[in-house]
Amino acid sequence: MEKKLSSTSGAAKRRKLKETKATLAKLPKLTTFLKPIEKRAETEVESQNSAEVVCINQSVEHDDIEENIATGNKNVNEEDVNRSPRNHRNKDKEDSNSDTNDAIEQINLEKSSELFSTDIANFHGKILTKDIKKIIVLSESCRPKERIWLCYSPKLDAAYCEPCWLFSEERKTKDNWREHGVRDWRGLSKKIKIHENSQQHIFACCIYEKWRHNETIDKNIEEQIRYQSNFWVQVLERIVNITLALCKNSLAFRGHRESFDNEYNGNFLTQVQLLAKYDNVMKQVLSMPDGSIKYLSHQIQNEVIHCLATHLKATLTADINSSPFYSIIMDTTQDITKRDQLSQVFRYVKIIKNEKDEATSIEIKEVFLGFTEIYNHTAAGLHEEILNLLEKHHIKLSNCRGQGYDSANVMSGIYNGVQALFKKNQPNVMYMHCAAHNLNLVINDAVKCCVEVASFFVMLEDVYSFFGNSINRWDLLSKYTGESQITLKRLNPTR
């Protein structure tokens, strides 16, 4: 005996759909609370609804066919199976139409909750960050046209206030408008009027409107930061220009007392005070209270000087590297603290070009890159220090074609001097004695060879000592010379 397949009959399914229809008929309608949706969204919903209705009909028809097969109906063939859906739809046309309308209404209820993802029910127990609030404000919510703040939650079946939910500061007191919604439909109009006139609702709506028009507190802070940044840029521009003016004229920056209360407070602060009389930016800086940031301290002055020096060195070294050839002139001298300093001078060829990038002429440039303290005074130590300086400034040794030093043996020695060690690394580097130093030595030797000339300079030194050691005699000499530029000077022998 064949075992019968168990399945739900079509009559039972139709009975179940009628029960669902009766349940849905008792639910409140949502059309009074929903805003019209865009046509594109309506088209998508209708297409999805029609597709699901077809699936429902096909599933019912397929179950009826399986029921006939299970009862052992042998007369069912392929043609009957193909024609059975059409026969079933014609037989139960009225029932299927009513069931279809109920299914569409149920689908519309589900779709309405999916379209409005900013529903308050979706955020219970979640922390509302700044980004989430911005998305909720700019998104489409389920609300009527008359009141922008009033929203409806399909999941909670309640009305709520979106501005109070997002921006109300009264979190200690319980308020259904921002927590779980209001479900009292009969007294809803009265509650809406009371809530609209509350102070916390008005304050929340003001913030809500600012967020809607992208006028948040963050934007005000950004504008304030932009203003402050622009102000301090102008302040630093004036400080840099004052620094350049003092450096150009080789003037000291600081005085004995660095305070605006003192009349003599150094060249830098004096220039700042002078500029503040005619410039509102520096005037605002000086009007700030004590302890405020003003960028006028000696640490800032040193930092600005260092930045300008670094930029100047980078510009000069770029010009040296862009030239085809250059030469170096190095010498050591003692500073006021009796420390030996190595001076760095570079001579190079600069090619002048026109607008078409064609060479028109050349210029010989000579630049000074600074001093470096020397600890090793041997030829090897000085040679290593010079190579380190070239590497530090990123100057190519292969472009060097000349070197100039004084006549000291450690510098100009043929076998172990600095110039000999340089030639081992770069054979094209030719050594030339310092022209100015050489001329001074020649003049000194020539003077010493002539007795009359030597006696003349000795007499000049004695005359200078006679007048220079007495103030009265120097005043007497000034009366005879008057405004003439002729004056006595001490002899300066070559080191």
Automatic annotation (TrEMBL):
Stored InterPro entries: DUF4371 (IPR025398), RNaseH-like_sf (IPR012337)
Pfam family, one: DUF4371
Recorded name of the encoding gene: LOC136078683
Biased composition (Polar residues): 1-10
Protein name according to UniProt: Zinc finger MYM-type protein 1-like
Region (Disordered): 1-23, 66-101
Domain spans labelled DUF4371: 210-417
SUPFAM superfamilies recorded: Ribonuclease H-like (SSF53098)
Top-level taxon of origin: Eukaryota
Recorded coiled-coil stretches: none
